[in-house]
Structures are given as structure tokens and as C-alpha cells.
TrEMBL record:
The gene is hisH. Its main location: cytoplasm. Heterodimer of HisH and HisF. Keywords: Amino-acid biosynthesis, Cytoplasm, Glutamine amidotransferase, Histidine biosynthesis, Hydrolase, Lyase. GO terms for cellular component: cytoplasm. GO terms for biological process: L-histidine biosynthetic process. IGPS catalyzes the conversion of PRFAR and glutamine to IGP, AICAR and glutamate. The HisH subunit catalyzes the hydrolysis of glutamine to glutamate and ammonia as part of the synthesis of IGP and AICAR. The resulting ammonia molecule is channeled to the active site of HisF. Its EC number is 4.3.2.10, 3.5.1.2. This is Imidazole glycerol phosphate synthase subunit HisH. CDD domains: GATase1_IGP_Synthase (cd01748). It catalyses: 5-[(5-phospho-1-deoxy-D-ribulos-1-ylimino)methylamino]-1-(5-phospho-beta-D-ribosyl)imidazole-4-carboxamide + L-glutamine = D-erythro-1-(imidazol-4-yl)glycerol 3-phosphate + 5-amino-1-(5-phospho-beta-D-ribosyl)imidazole-4-carboxamide + L-glutamate + H(+); L-glutamine + H2O = L-glutamate + NH4(+). The active site is at residues 72, 170, 172. Pathway: Amino-acid biosynthesis; L-histidine biosynthesis; L-histidine from 5-phospho-alpha-D-ribose 1-diphosphate: step 5/9.
């Protein structure tokens, strides 16, 4: 069962429809899932109360090797922290999520993703494909960056580390290219 972690924030229904998943709201649901998606529309701090209730279960599932995908805020929660506010992320990726500066925020609309290294999620996606973004914070480029997007400078729009994946864009709102990303993730579930 594809479990979609319900953080009590927006965008659950779109993701559930796109992946035909089941909402998981507690440790039991996380532990039963064969794969997890952590979606999100909202703020880092607003997600903390719910994340704290399932943090150890998610980390345990990562250690067991089940596939985990963070979408938008879900990608940001995979990091240690965020400039957006207090709270401790899942710390799967090192570093702090940064706020855009020198450009209009939020970054809303269609933008290109350029592959950076070999990527499971971007397999079959053409170079420079457009995806839909809505965010004011971003993950810096690192050794785990598999997709780059330029908005006032390059940032990680796709990250991958073992069985953990993250996308800053919304695949559930990105047409055929987004559907392909979700299928690429689903193949692993």
C-alpha cells in the first residue's frame, strides 16, 4: 500500500488521487505502508506537531529500505532544518533549507528541471522538462542533487539518496511529466 503521510496541511487530496494511495495519520499507518509519500503545502513549523508523532516510524521505515518520496514541503522536511521557522526535520539530508532572496517569492509557476547525474525519478524525462512549482524556500545543491532548477540561482529540485527521494515541484500538478515521475517512484513500491 502506498501511504501518503497526512501532516494536516494542504494538498492531500490531489496527491491521494494521483497515486491512488491511502492517507496515513499515525505510526500504525506508516508501519503498514510499502512506500511513503510526504506531501506538503504549508510551512515547515506548521508540519512539526504531526511530524513529531510519526518521525521515528518514518526514519525506521527509511532504514528498512522502503521507498520514501517528499513533495515540496515534504522534500524540505527531509533536511535537518529550515530558515522558515523552528523545528527539526527528518535529517535524512544534511543542511538547512534556505529562503529565496533577490527574487519574487513565492516562486509560482512552470519552470524547467535539468538532470544532474543519474536519476531514478527523472528516467524517461526529457532535459529541460517543465514542472509546476509553488514555494519560497529551497534545498541547496549537494551531492544528492539529481535535478536542478534556476530561480535566482540553481537549487535542488530533485534529490535522491538510496531509497529516499524528494522533488520541490508538484508532480501531481505537472501533467504527463509529473505523472511519469510518480510512476518512476511507484515502480519501486
Amino acid at each position: 500500500m502506498m501511504g501518503v503521510v497526512d501532516l494536516g496541511l494542504g494538498n492531500m487530496s490531489n496527491v491521494l488521487r494521483a497515486v491512488r494511495g491511502t492517507a496515513v495519520r499515525d505510526v500504525y499507518g506508516v508501519e503498514r505502508a510499502s512506500a511513503l509519500i510526504i506531501p506538503g503545502v504549508g510551512s515547515f513549523s506548521a508540519a512539526m506537531p504531526t511530524l513529531e508523532t510519526v518521525r521515528e516510524a518514518i526514519i525506521g521505515r527509511v532504514r528498512e529500505g522502503i521507498p520514501v518520496l517528499g513533495i515540496c514541503l515534504g522534500l524540505q522536511l527531509l533536511y535537518e532544518g529550515s530558515e522558515e521557522g523552528p523545528g527539526r526535520g527528518l535529517s535524512i539530508f544534511r543542511g538547512t533549507v534556505k529562503r529565496f532572496s533577490g527574487v519574487r517569492v513565492p516562486h509560482i509557476g512552470w519552470n524547467q528541471v535539468e538532470p544532474s547525474g543519474e536519476s531514478v525519478l527523472l528516467k524517461g524525462i526529457r532535459r529541460g522538462e517543465f514542472f509546476y512549482f509553488v514555494h519560497s524556500y529551497y534545498a541547496p545543491v549537494s551531492e544528492f542533487t539529481r535535478g536542478l532548477t534556476d530561480y535566482g540561482g540553481a537549487f535542488s529540485s530533485v534529490v535522491e539518496k538510496g531509497n529516499v527521494f524528494g522533488v520541490q515541484f508538484h508532480p501531481e500538478k505537472s501533467g504527463q511529466a509529473g505523472a511519469r515521475v510518480l510512476r518512476n517512484f511507484g515502480v519501486m513500491a
